[in-house]
Design brief:
globular, about 200 residues, mainly alpha
Length: about 200
C-alpha cells in the first residue's frame, strides 16, 4: 500500500502501472518479496470484500481507488500486485529467499494485536476494524498490525481537521508491540505525528 499514491492518475494509465513504477531497479529484492508475501496472505485468507475494505481504509486515497480505476474487486487487485512482483523478480534470478526475521508472523502476539485493534476501534471505520480483526486471525498478526498503523494515518487524514490523535501512552504501547514484532525504527514511527504531546 505504501507503493500506491493518491495522484497515480497523473503519472500512470492504470493502477498496475502506478505500482510497477515504484518497483525501480534499485529496489531491494527482499522488499518486493515482502510485498508479494503480503499480497498472497491477503488473497489466500480474506474475502475479496475484506481486501477491498482494507485497501480503501489503509492506502493513500484508497477510498477512490475502486471507483475510478479499472480494478473493481479486492482479489483481482491482489492478483495484479502479485503479477507486478513476479515480473520484477523474473529479471533477477539471484533474488534471495526471505530470512527467518522477514517471515516472522507474530502469531504469539495475536492477542496483543487484537487488543491494539480494540483500543482504536472507536476511531476506525467499523468495516476496517472488522477486516483488520479477520487479518489477525486468518493472515498474520504482523500484517494486521502494519495495516492498523496505515489505517490510523489514513483515518486521521480523512477526518480533518480534527484527525486522529494518539496519547503518549498509546504510542508507547504501539512502539512496544512493534519491538516485539522485530520492527526497525521506521515502522511505528509512521504514526508519531499523530501523538498529542
Amino acid at each position: 500500500m505504501g507503493f500506491f499514491h493518491q495522484d497515480w492518475t497523473l503519472s500512470a494509465a492504470t493502477e498496475v502501472e502506478a505500482v510497477a513504477d515504484q518497483f525501480v531497479e534499485e529496489l531491494e529484492p527482499e522488499a518486493v518479496l515482502l510485498v508479494r508475501r503480503d499480497a498472497l496472505l491477503l488473497l489466500g485468507n480474506l474475502t475479496s470484500d475484506q481486501i477491498k475494505v482494507l485497501w480503501e481504509g489503509c492506502a493513500d486515497g484508497g477510498k477512490y481507488f475502486f471507483r475510478r480505476g479499472r480494478v473493481t474487486e479486492g482479489d483481482q487487485w491482489m492478483r495484479q500486485v502479485i503479477e507486478v512482483c513476479d515480473a520484477w523478480l523474473s529479471g533477477r534470478p539471484e533474488a534471495p529467499s526471505l530470512t527467518e526475521a522477514d517471515t516472522y508472523e507474530g502469531n504469539d502476539l495475536a492477542d496483543q494485536v487484537l487488543a491494539a485493534l480494540e483500543e482504536f476501534s472507536g476511531v476506525l471505520d467499523p468495516q476496517v476494524a472488522d477486516a483488520l480483526g479477520a487479518c489477525v486471525r486468518s493472515c498474520t498478526p504482523d500484517l494486521a498490525f502494519r495495516l492498523l498503523l496505515r489505517a490510523l494515518v489514513e483515518r486521521s487524514a480523512s477526518r480533518s481537521p480534527e484527525g486522529v490523535s494518539l496519547s503518549v501512552g498509546q504510542y508507547a504501547k504501539l512502539e512496544r508491540l512493534g519491538a516485539a514484532l522485530h520492527y526497525g525504527e521506521f515502522v511505528v514511527s509512521d504514526v508519531d505525528h499523530l501523538v498529542t504531546r
